[in-house]
Amino acid sequence: xxxxxxxxxxxxxxxxxxxxxxxxxxxxxxxxxxxxxxxxxxxxxxxxxxxxxxxxxxxxxxxxxxxxxxxxxxxxxxxxxxxxxxxxxxxxxxxxxxxxxxxxxxxxxxxxxxxxxxxxxxxxxxxxxxxxxxxxxxxxxxxxxxxxxxxxxxxxxxxxxxxxxxxxxxxxxxxxxxxxxxxxxxxxxxxxxxxxxxxxxxxxxxxxxxxxxxxxxxxxxxxxxxxxxxxxxxxxxxxxxxxxxxxxxxxxxxxxxxxxxxxxxxxxxxxxxxxxxxxxxxxxxxxxxxxxxxxxxxxxxxxxxxxxxxxxxxxxxxxxxxxxxxxxxxxxxxxxxxxxxxxxxxxxxxxxxxxxxxxxxxxxxxxxxxxxxxxxxxxxxxxxxxxxxxxxxxxxxxxxxxxxxxxxxxxx
Length: 412
Fold this sequence. Notes:
Pfam families: HAMP (PF00672), HATPase_c (PF02518), HisKA (PF00512). The chain is rod-shaped and about 150 Å long. With 412 residues, it is an alpha+beta fold. It folds into 3 domains: 3-147, no CATH class; 196-273, Signal transduction histidine kinase, dimerisation/phosphotransfer (DHp) domain (Helix Hairpins, Orthogonal Bundle); 281-410, Histidine kinase-like ATPase, C-terminal domain (Heat Shock Protein 90, 2-Layer Sandwich), CATH 3.30.565. It contains 10 helices and 11 strands.
């Protein structure tokens, strides 16, 4: 696993760890508050009972002797005023007095013989014990978080790894490996089956269905093109027997267009099936490109920056250059420029450029994009890309900054 992926804060791993941390903090806070409140309430209750018990004994002694025992005040000036009022209104009254910095006390007061008797229980040690307990709970919670968060991140890594495998498989399929599958084992037991298994199984099922449909489409295209060759050959022969004339020339032209389309479909079906093999040998690149341009009969401005000899299949290279040149003339505008620089060939026109859909999704057969790119069947670029793949070359399509479409073929 790369360090960048490990430290990515948006990773599902850290989101799960953060959720576990928040849940642990919430539980620790709730438990801490409950323990704090219950412990402190019990300490105050014990102090209140102790203060009242001392006051009851002091009141009994005061009634009998007229003298309060040690630790009992009579009309004390430090007694909270509210407590004195409460004592005069009832038999016994208690109040908690928290000075925080100096001392904490539980007071109890009652009226006896017209005087207010009061006693107090020091709760400073209880308060300090509660504060120490709170600190210890905070330290324990932090220690638990230090253990829980890494464990949660490690536990989240297993489903993350399986999800990354699904994503990697999707990228392989997008790159052209149509037989790629997640390879995750199917869990039959209900207690071991989870949502990631459902995603992987659904993804594999979708990939199988897409692959089967693509095979069916390729087989259909090949069958149609193959079946059309026989009647098309008859049409070509019949057209040659027609008397010369304007109508005959029109018929022959349309038959040749149809013948070219059928041959292109057959070529695409062979490329899709992966049966094409390149016959590689060293050839001078400028000469092959010049010959390909001459065979098309189309005009192009040639520029050779650096001539080189490349190991390639000249027939397939000729096919790529011809299709790119025809596409530039058909869908773009003159001048069409061809630049050779070492093992790179660039074909550029000065038309409206490739439509955004083509640059984003790649060329699609029988779809030429926007109307301003002209008319056609969308087969030329598809064939060029397929032949480039057979040559292990790279064909990049882009729009020039100052206008026009650019196709760059890199043979090495």
